[in-house]
Amino acid sequence: MEYLLMYSQGTDPQPWDPAGQSIGEWVAETIENRTNEYGERLRPAEDTTLVRVRDGKVLLTEGPFTESKEWAGGFDIISCADLDEAIEIASKHPATRMGTTEVRPFMVWPDADPDSFVVPLGFAERPVKGKRYLMLVCVDPSGEKGVEDEVDPWVERWDTAGVRLFGEVLRPPADGTFVRTRQGKVLVTDGPYSEAKEWIAGLDVIEVSDFDQAVEVAAGHPMARSGLIALVPAWPFDVDGDHAAREQREASEWGRRTEPAVGATP
Amino acid sequence: MGSSHRARRGGDALTSDRTEQAAGLDPAVSAAVREAYESEWASVVATLIRVTGDWDVAEEAAAGAFERALVTWPRDGVPRTPGAWLTTTARNLALDRLRRRGVEATKLKEWTVMDDRHGPGDPAQQVLADPDWDDRLRLIFTCAHPALSLEARVALTLRTVGGLTTPEVARAFLVSESTLAQRIVRAKAKIAHAAIPYIVPSPDALPERLDGVLAVLYLIHTEGYTASSGPDLQRLDLAVEAIRLTRLLYGLLPGPEPAALLALMLFQHARSATRVDALGDLVPLEDQDRSGWNAAEIAEGLHLLAAWPATARTPYRVQAEIQAVHVRAGRAADTDWWAILARYAELPESPVVQLNQAIARGMADEPAAGLVALERLEASGRLAGYHLLPAAQADLSRRAGHVDRAAEFYRVAIELAPTEPERRYLVRRLEGLPSPLISEID
After folding, report:
1. Going by fewer Cβ within 10 Å, which terminus of chain B is more open, N or C?
2. Which CATH superfamily is domain A2-252 in?
């Protein structure tokens, strides 16, 4: 089984808790035991851009799409035997001690090759050649009806161009599980689901030369018409660095847009 | 949903559709089928789920096996080991079903191998038995997995472990059958799609997960002991089912926590016949006919408490001990309220615990002492809208001789009472208040 771990603040955010594994230790351990396929820290919600295509026009909005402050600060894609193991892995991540981690299974296709993974093998060794974005492919009731949802031409085009690194469909939110670690206890719940009408149905990771290309890629996805694409810039950092010092250093970054203004069209 | 047959010690509303089917059979055979349903259903389903990995196939096949028993047992006699007969029959039915559905030959072959490994010969010996854990424990823990909603856990536990039909569970929780069916379908889908494992948790995770199982069982019991809505105060069928399931859990995983919960349930259930009068009205503890309490259940509960060290002060243990103080008292006046008060102090703080603590203080000490504590609780606003707070204030005011204040509190409590018997009880109390003394009317 493969799961997406999405780290967000949740409803009862806690201060940084130095007890337990650091991010560096967690990453090292999960790479060592081969459960960790890939992960990124993500830019703050203000730096997210929602891409919708309506009536042939590309519409850009500043994210996040929900009214709540819920936004993933990072994610990891893991591979393990079952949900209990996924919960255990998630429970040790420092973000789970500070916030809430959603554990969402990826779709298992009936005809899937059992040896293939969401993240291609050897991906970690691939040098970073451009800017990486997480494309969250979302269901949005405001989307156009009857859109041809054949995604293969899009996948093929951007795979060939070396832009789309990988991607996969997720199981719906109802199959997700929420994990928090508080005072060493692992708290598991089936919710709360976000009240938002939009929900994440899948993801792709792309590597582009600049923001404009990211928008071009996102806008070409059939779900940009029938739903929406949230374009979230990766925010690389040194996983072994001191968390408190990093937070202080980056304090001014939070809540400040670094991408083109709202409404810009490529 | 296949039909099936079970005996039920409490309530009869849930049983009619089952037992009618057995009518016309040799009473001895139909009793054997019912008994087998009660004792073997969970086992058969639990094993079939492990072997097939498919909850629906397992349940259908288990129900099918009981249907077949109704046909073959009268003809061929009741098998020597009904459980093994039922598991084998269900296994074969499940195989047929999967074959018809076109499950690949490799998977079916795995089964045959599994079957062979246990050796040929008497299938009654050990049909697909798991050497490590009783399959029923896997089933109990999976049904109570915290990744499922609490409602889904309760429904799934009653349906799959308890063997109640979907309409029965729906009736028990006063929701529509389609709502309940949907809840169960969703839960099974999540078990499959999120890959919730069919295991007994590892020793590290076991204590916490066991708490989760006990919470589900206690919730079923509580709903039976004091229904949260509806015309009746108690739904004994649910309370009985909770006790049956907890007894099953305790048998599979003996330990102080399940023992304490089982004792607590038994003490509460032992009084059920005297908690309601002939008209269905609530009878308070102090007015209950103690000779009507179930002595066997009380003895079993006391034995369970004695069997495990009292050192682990878990909430169920402490609550069971509080109940034990009540059931040990020959008359209401003999109740050791100071012992009860001391035990409430051990429970994790919550508004409801504070309420009970204040009542115990009022009973142990002077009513006025309890009233002061209740007033503080009222001022905190933490129990706003909860009828038992003004009801307690009314009762202690009555005991203190403040008739006017008692009447006032009763009227508030009556407005808030969630069930008809509780409301009627409070009205009776209000009407039974002594006429106020002249000096108090002003």
Report:
1. C
2. Dimeric alpha+beta barrel (3.30.70.1060)
